[in-house]
């Protein structure tokens, strides 16, 4: 399904306004031979195989197989900060239903998405805090607190029953399944560093009142700078414990490893998991929250859904053992600092702000 132009936010207009204060030359993809016409999502990046972990091992009757699967998860979280999981237990029909509902949601007119209170005013587009071209994201999204999904009456105060129809039922089921998977993986990572999951949850609770879903749409992008392709999503780390991503087959996701951008090749049967800032802080840098980005595609639009495992704003983020690399901070304090930095300088600084 291709979205019509009236459904796309005015990304080019906003981007051009940012360019008025910069000397960067804007071009169309058709005007330059320096940019490839195919596979633009791999521009400037290496192709490597992201670790793929079969989660069947976690439920094996063989203790050795369970231990080896847990070790693979911990190793990938330390060496890559990213990995893919297969046999994850989430029904493929549910993933297809979620994608169908997501496409229909973004197919709504831009005026409806941006102004009518759809999904609790969770719609976002572009980069309001961008102060330079490389801070701008060519994308739109619905960033939805799970508490709004599990209490759908809060979302139906707006008269949009036709537009929402089966969407809420799919969102509820999808969020619930992602929450179970995220907690399973988090439990493995917690126990790998010698702490009981129950003790961790007594201090830090991540449940339906604190976590988020983000529905992403990256419209095709026919403009770029003379230096590089447009960011669909600017380089960043995630401000959570971990993220689970379900992406389509278009590609464009890249992660930073040893100062080199690596393209993540889409795998139809896999979900992508990445470590967030809070797990890096809690693990004293054993687990790595890795910078990643999305490259916009000039020929194809891209869709993905991200689940973010977050604690409550008053949760204190310490370290699993002393001495701690980072000072203790609440999640609310961390989010506030990220927002402040983004507003002042156009991008996130993150964990370096909290070093001892």
From TrEMBL:
Keyword Protease: no
Ranges of residues in domain Fe2OG dioxygenase: 207-311
InterPro entries noted in UniProt: DIOX_N, IPNS-like_FE2OG_OXY, IPNS-like_sf, Iron_ascorbate_oxido_reductase, Oxoglu/Fe-dep_dioxygenase_dom
The entry's keywords: Iron, Metal-binding, Oxidoreductase
Residue stretches in coiled coil: none
GO molecular function: 2-oxoglutarate-dependent dioxygenase activity; metal ion binding
The family this protein is said to belong to: Belongs to the iron/ascorbate-dependent oxidoreductase family.
UniProt-recorded name of the protein: Fe2OG dioxygenase domain-containing protein
